[in-house]
Amino acid sequence: MDAKEVLQIVIREMTAYGYGWRGDWSDFDGRFLRDQLNELADWAEMALDSKEVLDYEKGTKFREWKYG
User: Fold this and answer.
1) Measured over all CA atoms, what is the biggest interatomic distance in the chain, rounded to whole angstroms?
2) Whole-angstrom Cα distance, residue 68 to residue 30?
3) pTM for this one?
4) Domain map (residue ranges) of the chain
């Protein structure tokens, strides 16, 4: 994937994590957020090395889960 595609997905997913957490701070755990962002960063590094288009939707799914 090229850097622009990876960045677009990273921005979308970071925004989804932010909205997901903002929707319900009662469950907030900074360690969990750190793990989520580290996983996204690991995906981005791997995606930059890949010729395939690899999507990442865990932030989007987290947001949907948090909002029901």
Assistant:
1) 40
2) 21
3) 0.86
4) 3-67
Amino acid at 46: M
Q: Does residue 54 sit in helix, strand or coil?
A: coil
In tens digits, what is the pLDDT along the chain, a chain of 68 residues? 999 999 999 999 999 999 888 877 777 888 999 999 999 999 999 999 998 989 999 999 988 887 76
Residues 31, 33, 34, 38, Cα dihedral to 10°: 140
